[in-house]
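Sat 14:20. Reprocessing the chain from the morning session after the first attempt stalled halfway. Input below, unchanged.
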Amino acid sequence: MAEIQAEVDESTPLLKSASGSEDALFEKLQENRDRWRSIRIMYLTMFLSSIGFSIVMSSIWPFLLKVDKTADASFLGWVIAAYSLGQMVASPLFGAWSNYRPRREPLIISIFINVAANILYGYVHSFPSHNKYYMLLSRAFIGFGAGNVAVVRSYVAGATSLQERTAAMANISASQALGFILGPALQAALTSIGQTGVSWKLIDLELNMYTAPAFLGALLGVVNIVLIIGLFREHCGIELDRMKDEIGNIQDVPETFENSSGSIDLIAVVTSNILFFIILFVFAIFETIATPLTMDMYAWTGKQAVLYNGILLVGVGIESIIVFMTTKLLSKRFEDRLLLLGGFVVLFFGFFVLLPWGDQYPQIQWTGIKNASNYSSVEIKYNEASIVTWNLFMQPSLSLSAERTGCPVDQVWCQYTPIIHLTQYILSAILIGMGYPVCNVISYTLYSKILGPKPQGTYMGWLTASGSGARTLGPVFVSQIYTHYGPRWTFGPICGIVLAAIILIGVMYKRLIGFLIQYQRVQ
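Finished this time. Tokens:
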């Protein structure tokens, strides 16, 4: 009996006093085990959702060219953005659904949509025409199915106490980060199938290195549905039960606090959405800019940029998981608001160190050579309008047949903007990999505490939608600003945006508090 009491006290701070009968104690212990089993299934759902996003990312462009020769780089941008757009639309819908119906329903339906969309992705080659639009549609519906992130986070928020909340949210974010790491690894492993692979004409199936990841994602979705049907159980209102225990009597909790949004600090809610948008916006920019930035700054080939940045991003992902776990420990000693502020400060320095300085400039990418002497006259097509003659020192080993490397000449800023040193770039990645996980997990945790014990599906949906909007706008912003104005006008405004977020936290610091603390102040 003493062992049971110890297990209950250690893992279930929400359990009431074990002074009742032994049967009641076992019943509570079993309920707690069911609750954490359901929470862990939500971890798995988040993990599989992130794998579904990342497992095909590195192969979308070659697959798109294979199925539709009319596709270009601009259409690729829409294909990539379709995922975030679909998630942005679906998140509030699934979140609101989970407020009024059992969460199992939106979870199963969303995953089923995801499975069907992955199968459509694997079959885009079979359509007689307009294949690129079918790929766009499939990625949009994969993102639509990923709108269940709002349901997952709202469930975990309702099924945990305030003491458990930060650790649970950190585990969700770590599961998501692990999916982002393993997705590309699975894609790399499936390249052994080859571009031709195997085919089954009876059902028009082509299983190759491009379609296999999508079919694998569909299979994992089916497994996820089976687990939800068999093992998932509803456990909600944990924080409200805790409040009733602490306050003393159910009548002491005003009805408006349970059934309406009148008690929620909407200013704090809007502030949290703004902060979360900024977090996802700046991180999406860093992900997007990595390959073109390194190719411009260090004259890497496309293959080198993909390889080296892939290794770097895997390292950042591992660092993020470690930071997620560390945040669970820090949250026991420091307030969420303070951790969030600290995370933004680290993010600020992460982008600040990317500002170029010094007198070393990037190598220019020349497009034509008139003679092979050491000092040569090179004709360059500039902005497809004018011909400019440049004198430069030519390296004897330069070959016209090799892939052109360096900063494209049509990016005028390459001629007067100093290089971003490799040490700067690596240090920036380390700092961003440290600040982003803290901001991510604490923003979700603090947001759920601000909302309090009422159903959080709709509000979590809006928060997820704001993040999806940031992931959509971030690449668009950086592709325009970086190409035309360079890294100074890219990272300078980002530093200003992060600094504005820090100031916003300072201004709203007293309002970024949990529901229970707010209630006690009102009382």
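The longest strand covers residues 375-382.
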